[in-house]
Amino acid sequence: MSTTDRKLSVSIERFPIAGVFSISRGSRTEAVVVTATVSDGGVTGRGECVPYARYGETVEGVAAAIEALGPMVEKGLDRDGLQEALPPGAARNALDCALWDLDAKRAGVPAHVLAGIDRLGRATTAYTISLAEPDAMAEAAHAARERAILKIKLGKPEGDIRRLEAVRAAAPDATLIVDANEGWRPELMRDLMRACADNGVALVEQPLPAGADEALADIDRLVPVCADESLHTRADLPRLKPLYDAINIKLDKTGGLTEALKLAAEAEAQGFAIMVGCMVGTSLAMAPAMLLTPRARFVDLDGPLLLARDRPHGLVYEGSTVAPPSPLLWG
């Protein structure tokens, strides 16, 4: 590392959610994000992460972990060095994405070019329907029925078939993704999978808890099954191969774009379908994940659509289509 004029700053920001966002583990009304900003002379790079209690993270702990690397950043810490300095997770993600942004701006080329991607186009994203009673989910699905892909949050297994049927009736033409967020149980899986197949579901995401997903090896996967909470980095792929058909890559799990790009390439080589997903955050968190969309069969980058307000220069959504980021935002 060489001495530079770099400075690191960290901030905690709050963005209200439009209504309530509910999954099997609970509900919330705001997105609390941590933003890392690395400045070097007149050039600035930013990255955003969403600390997640499911992985033992707190907002304060993540902010402190990033701040602790201030001296290393000021001495020239690069993306490769960062992979050793922090473990996978939200803290590394924010700083990794800030360094990608900084490097792109210093080089005067888009971040996707730095990543070896010739062209970054528009992508079609899923739109999330929060977990609720069947009638409420049907009403939300009906309001969003013009969107091409609906991701419906389930995970209360005794009522999930009714929820699924209600959503399908309300949005008969939409591609459906079911996300159980670890809320199903092995003894109910056959009935739930049959209901998914009968209702034309395209993908079932993380039906069983990450620590108890071995049961998937003995269940007929009538619909492709995608690992989310069970998948963080490339090190997880060998265990997941007999259990899942697809993986959901989220930068807050991989610890940033650097690992995410390597994970996508290796997973694709092993025959996994790729889904690129997100936590509920602003366009600044979605922008780096857009670099994964050329490899993805499913894209779920609707975080800003769930917020009451987004950042300036946010991603441009036209219905279900999202455009690549402006350099005014990231990259």
Automatic annotation (TrEMBL):
InterPro entries: DgoD-like, Dipeptide_epimerase, Enolase-like_C_sf, Enolase-like_N, Enolase_C-like, Mandelate_racemase_C, Mandelate_racemase_N_dom. It comes from the Bacteria. This is Dipeptide epimerase. Binds 1 Mg(2+) ion per subunit. SMART domains: MR_MLE. Belongs to the mandelate racemase/muconate lactonizing enzyme family. Residues 134-226 form the Mandelate racemase/muconate lactonizing enzyme C-terminal domain. Its EC number is 5.1.1.-. The active site is at K153, K250. Keywords: Isomerase, Magnesium, Metal-binding.
